[in-house]
Amino acid sequence: TDQADTATYDVIVIGAGVSGMRQLMLLREKNLSVRVLEGGGDIGGTWYWNRYPGARLDSESYTYQYAFDEELLAEWDWSELFAGQPELLAYFNRVADKYDLRRDIDFNTTVEQLHFDEERNLWTVKARGGRTYTTRFVIAATGVLSALNFPDIPGLGTFEGEWHHTGAWPHEPVDTTGKKVIVIGTGATGIQVITEVAKTAGHLTVFQRTPNWAIPLRNRPLSADDMAEIRGTYPTLFQHLQTTSSGFIHQADPTTSTDVPRDERLAHYEELYQQPGFAKWVGVYHDIATDAEANKEYGAFIEQKIRERVHDQAVADLLVPTDHLFGTKRVPCETNYYETYNRDNVRLVSLKESPILSYTPKGVLTQDGEVEADIIIIATGFEAFTGALNRIDIRGKGGLSLKEKWQFGPLTYLGIQVADFPNLFIMGGPHGKGGHGNSPRCSEKPLEWMADFASYLVANDVQRVEADPTAEKEWSEWVYEVASKLLQAGANTYVYGDNIPGRPRAYLAYAGTLPDFVQKLDDSAARGYEGFVLTR
Ligand code: NA7
């Protein structure tokens, strides 16, 4: 039965994750009428859905929190340098409670349709189950890694055991103790879940399509003294994080590797290897990201580390990446991941040598035979950047579908608007910086900018705002051009969409820096929202 929400909102925000929650607060401050629609049963987005064992930050916890509320910053203690999912969800719940966010959010409300009414300049939003809403503006805070990717393997319905995608993990704990478990996928998620499940499973089989360059997380508990020290940095920390390229605390080393003598270089790599988090990825000599030769030397160093940690060199051979250079795909952080393959109860199967043919009632059939399982864990990631939007039937002017418009790759202006889709804004999607990198830092300024813009549009009675097609063309071409110069252009990665067969290969992220991106938003606003066409 169709239920209509009879209000006409100024803004509907889709998604109550890390970005959507903050967007709601900011729009409230502007006294706009806002409703947030969320598919999940509660707030938290990524941290609501990804409850799998081992789910954890690879950003330092204190860099990942909201920066706007001094009281909250003073009160909240992080228990670990890299917080786990339960602590993160508790944090976002604390925020939602403090700001009474839930009163403006409809949960279990998965948006399926967004249709633009050209006569009235309003969007009609239809959720699963039939409930409809009317709004002037829509802000999609739908996340860049939220649309689940299921591998194209037949027969899942015939499997008699339990199966779970890591990105839609049940709320009740899944007991893997003593069980036969299969994990499919060895990305950042797979690596976390494999390490954790191996500790208790009776037997674990890991199906690996492509090995990744993983680096030690080096997590540790934070004491009261640690927190006091960290808190002392807050006044400047959050400003500083706006100056780094992706909102991480680590920054590329301006030194060129070849300017440093080889033994000094290698000693430096050893030092880096002992440091926590992305120091070993984001914080390396700058040319490791751009010069293939410099990169290969560093890759050889990491390879040696992997080989030292894995007893069986035939297994190590499978774990060392050969298809892509270090850091050209998202580098997973790990805690004893490589040592996991030294356990008697763990077996690594390379799908290159032994592809999966189907699921069966008892497990998974590969070319080399059947592997039985009580539980199958599907850690195959997401249809990144565009998936969450493409799964909604979005129709702009003349009934044009967004999915069709993007069939060869995304086209946007600033990653925020799409020509022919008036009054629709994207906060965290393709070709924008918000929502990617150290996500809360990258989205912070764009969300503030967006609230200012929405307020301006309402105050000035703007009926229609859309990306200027020329601005869209220039922005898209620029993004594609900048990306083509990175070493990353040589890797198959979700950043190019080609982790999923049949998806067009097109660069989906934003290749510039966070401060550059924020500057571009501010410049547009300062010039009366240049690049956007406003109709009163
Ligand atoms: P990723 O990084 O996309 O990893 C997915 C993994 O699943 C990766 O190892 C894939 O292999 C593998 N995969 C995907 N499709 C298949 C099929 N059909 N068969 C076998 N294996 C497959 O997703 P994650 O969830 O790990 O991480 C996503 C982000 O979330 C991450 O960056 C963190 O920021 C959090 P491939 O390498 O494509 O060959």
Automatic annotation (TrEMBL):
Its cofactor is FAD. Keywords: FAD, Flavoprotein, Monooxygenase, NADP, Oxidoreductase. It comes from the Bacteria. Gene3D superfamilies: FAD/NAD(P)-binding domain (3.50.50.60). Pfam families: Pyr_redox_3. PANTHER family: L-ORNITHINE N(5)-MONOOXYGENASE-RELATED. Belongs to the FAD-binding monooxygenase family. This is NAD(P)/FAD-dependent oxidoreductase. It comes from Nocardioides endophyticus. The lineage of its organism: Bacteria, Bacillati, Actinomycetota, Actinomycetes, Propionibacteriales.
